[in-house]
């Protein structure tokens, strides 16, 4: 697992899953990230999950805002995937990659220009990777969640009064739980999805049917 976590969450991950190895790296640093991924060794299944959320209004969007979102949400996906995919190709045994994208690739979120643009780029990266890596039996797909009830998600959207309008626009009337996203990721990584390549799998309860959203997120949310 490659990511940048505070020490406590990293240790929690290790305690819950003693078999895993955690690596702390600034994904915005291209060269350092590349070396860290190379040092991990062979990877057969990759999930690009790191991302920055939040944002500002279109007229207030700065170069720094764009650069920070694209450094992690876009460039890091390309960087990590390149290293891993080269190893997959060299070993000749195929593999699978999942890019965690967002429902924001199909609807506009107010005050989230850079975020929406970066996640739209992720879906296009997925399609091109699927096209070019498919002949090597490497499948690449995106999973696109809505608001997910992580610890951070519950803090921002746990108030029933605040979340009622949002839930009312979701046909299933609820937000996604972490397990909902995990199950989708495990499916597209598994042999059961052996002919699934280049798709965007929305985990949003059909929330993305409308084209524009007039709400804002004040926290970094994977959806």
UniProtKB/TrEMBL annotation:
<keyword id="KW-0521">NADP</keyword>
<keyword id="KW-0560">Oxidoreductase</keyword>
<dbReference type="InterPro" id="IPR002347">
    <property type="entry name" value="SDR_fam"/>
</dbReference>
<dbReference type="GO" id="GO:0050038">
    <property type="term" value="F:L-xylulose reductase (NADPH) activity"/>
</dbReference>
<dbReference type="GO" id="GO:0005997">
    <property type="term" value="P:xylulose metabolic process"/>
</dbReference>
<dbReference type="InterPro" id="IPR036291">
    <property type="entry name" value="NAD(P)-bd_dom_sf"/>
</dbReference>
<dbReference type="InterPro" id="IPR051737">
    <property type="entry name" value="L-xylulose/Carbonyl_redctase"/>
</dbReference>
<comment type="subunit">
    <text>Homotetramer.</text>
</comment>
<dbReference type="Pfam" id="PF13561">
    <property type="entry name" value="adh_short_C2"/>
</dbReference>
<protein>
    <recommendedName>
        <fullName>L-xylulose reductase</fullName>
    </recommendedName>
</protein>
<dbReference type="InterPro" id="IPR020904">
    <property type="entry name" value="Sc_DH/Rdtase_CS"/>
</dbReference>
<dbReference type="GO" id="GO:0004090">
    <property type="term" value="F:carbonyl reductase (NADPH) activity"/>
</dbReference>
<comment type="similarity">
    <text>Belongs to the short-chain dehydrogenases/reductases (SDR) family.</text>
</comment>
<dbReference type="GO" id="GO:0006006">
    <property type="term" value="P:glucose metabolic process"/>
</dbReference>
């Amino acid at each position: 697992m490659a990511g940048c976590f505070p020490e406590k969450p990293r240790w929690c991950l290790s305690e819950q899953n003693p078999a895993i190895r955690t690596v702390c790296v600034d994904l915005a640093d291209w060269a350092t990230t590349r070396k860290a991924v190379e040092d991990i060794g062979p990877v057969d299944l990759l999930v690009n999950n790191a991302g920055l959320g939040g944002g500002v209004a279109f007229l207030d969007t700065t170069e720094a805002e764009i650069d920070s979102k694209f450094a992690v949400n876009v460039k890091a996906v390309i960087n990590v995937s390149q290293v891993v995919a080269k190893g997959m190709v060299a070993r000749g045994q195929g593999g699978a990659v999942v890019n965690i994208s967002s429902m924001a690739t199909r609807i506009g979120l107010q005050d989230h220009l850079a975020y929406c643009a970066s996640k739209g780029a992720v879906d296009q990266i997925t399609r091109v990777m699927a096209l070019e890596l498919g002949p090597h039996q490497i499948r690449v797909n995106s999973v696109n969640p809505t608001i997910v009830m992580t610890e951070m998600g519950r803090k921002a959207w746990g108030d029933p009064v605040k979340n009622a309008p949002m839930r009312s626009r979701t046909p299933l009337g609820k937000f996604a739980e972490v397990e909902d996203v995990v199950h989708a990721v495990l499916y597209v990584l598994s042999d059961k999805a052996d002919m699934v390549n280049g798709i965007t799998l929305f985990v949003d309860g059909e929330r993305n049917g409308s084209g524009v959203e007039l709400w804002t997120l004040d926290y970094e949310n994977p959806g």
